[in-house]
Design goal:
The protein has 423 residues and is an alpha/beta fold. It is built from 9 helices and 9 strands. The relative contact order is 0.14.
Length: 423
């Protein structure tokens, strides 16, 4: 039976501890937006008419960065602690990054996990194992066009959840674009085990890795073949839940939120594109798409302006849920980030070793067959070149020669002159 997500609802991003910035909360001033060509994309769209659901730790709708552009949906943990000072640290930061990229979009906050600072943080379990699937369905039924999931669960045996996958299928069938953070377990020197993390590993979810300013993988970003794209993930200028300002954060969570913002721009301008077409536009225009795929950063860092230009050339397709006819060559609808083939090249040394080994095996086989046939031939000839068909005497090891048996009914002849013999 497929296990539920009773794994830890670990945040896919650990926000870097830093003091709040004194800069204005009205706009982001970090390096991340220029790195994704967002200012140029704003000449085309700023995310008008799009709702992005932030499936996370909840949001602070009254934060200056979010104010007027965010609403809070149900708390799927069924808790009553929104007034607590530690509430929504992670979710508020993620919402701010989305709005930095798509400033005219709307945010729908849905709480499915607790922040690590929360005294009731569950660690390796979730108080509501169905929270993620319930939130995805709720977001889909309440107008979300994009779902951002900067969360992750990880254990070796029971992270996969059939209900969550079905909820993702449902959202995809309704045309909702889903994104997930790949996780921060890629640095073995810091104790990372590079474990698979859900929901980003589910088919149909656009999986996002974290990149540095030079476009390479951030050291903490997990490495997996289902990564689709990368986005800035270090030194991100995001909302600080403790103040009205901003702070510097990092993680694949931040990268996922930024990518969700770019997805919102595409959906705003081209609302009839299927989710897999949005993914295609992001992948085909990413920084190293022309050079090929990498399990570290997918097709590279996304380029908002180029993705919009690519999306303009696409003819809208029908929305298809995972598992239905026409879903493509991979697990879900469209490309899951894994190339169809890899060019491994030819290792001539190994080919030569294999050929020599095959030749030796062949020689031994023929040699054994020849010895067997020779033995059969000698057996038919008999000892010392006896004629064909002559009997062959083989001495039995450990046995004495058998004397001719005497007829028990035949008496030996009496001594000479004695007749008849004594009875």
């Amino acid at each position: 039976m497929i296990k539920r997500i009773v794994a830890s609802a670990l945040l896919a991003s650990v926000l870097a501890a830093a003091s709040a910035s004194t800069a204005s909360a009205d706009s982001a001033q970090g390096w991340e937006l220029p790195a994704m060509s967002v200012p140029a994309a704003h000449a085309v769209t700023e995310g008008e008419g799009v709702t992005v659901a932030v499936v996370d730790t909840g949001i602070r709708t009254d934060h200056p960065v979010l104010k007027g552009r965010a609403t809070e949906g149900p708390d799927f943990l069924q808790a009553n602690d929104k007034s607590a000072s530690r509430y929504s640290e992670h979710g508020t930061a993620m919402a701010s990054s989305i709005l930095d990229v798509a400033p005219k979009a709307k945010i729908l906050g849905l709480r499915v996990i607790r922040d690590e600072a929360d005294p009731n943080y569950q660690g390796r379990s979730m108080s509501n194992p169905d929270a993620v699937s319930q939130a995805i369905k709720y977001a889909t039924d309440h107008g979300a066009d994009v779902i951002s999931m900067s969360i992750g669960s990880r254990t070796l045996l029971n992270s996969y959840d059939e209900k969550a996958l079905k909820a993702i299928d449902y959202a995809l069938s309704k045309g909702v674009v889903l994104l997930g953070a790949v996780g921060n377990l890629g640095d073995k020197s810091a104790g990372g085990d590079n474990a698979i993390s859900y929901p980003s590993a589910y088919p149909g979810v656009i999986t996002v890795a974290a990149s540095t300013p030079d476009g390479s993988r951030a050291s903490f970003s997990s490495v997996h073949s289902y990564i689709d794209i990368a986005a800035p993930g270090v030194g991100i200028y995001e909302a600080d839940y403790r103040s009205s300002g901003r702070t510097s954060g990092e993680g694949t969570s931040a990268a996922c939120a930024l990518a969700a913002g770019v997805s919102a721009l595409i959906v705003s301008k081209y609302p009839n594109l299927a989710p897999r077409q949005v993914e295609r536009a992001l992948e085909e225009t990413a920084s190293h798409a022309s050079r090929g795929y990498s399990a570290e950063t997918g097709y590279g860092v996304i380029n908002a302006k180029a993705a919009l230009q690519a999306a303009a050339k696409l003819t809208p397709e029908q929305n298809v849920a995972i598992g239905e006819t026409g879903t493509g060559l991979h697990f879900g609808p469209g490309d899951d980030g894994t190339p169809k083939t890899y060019s491994q090249g030819v290792d001539f040394f190994k080919v030569a070793v294999a050929a020599v080994g095959a030749l030796i095996t062949l020689l031994f086989t023929f040699g054994g067959f020849w010895l067997f046939k020779s033995g059969r031939r000698l057996q038919r000839q008999g000892p010392e070149g006896a004629g064909l068909g002559a009997p062959v005497a083989y001495t039995q090891y450990g046995q004495q020669p058998v004397l001719p048996q005497q007829n028990p009914y035949q008496q030996s002849a009496p001594p000479s002159g004695q007749w008849p013999p004594y009875q």
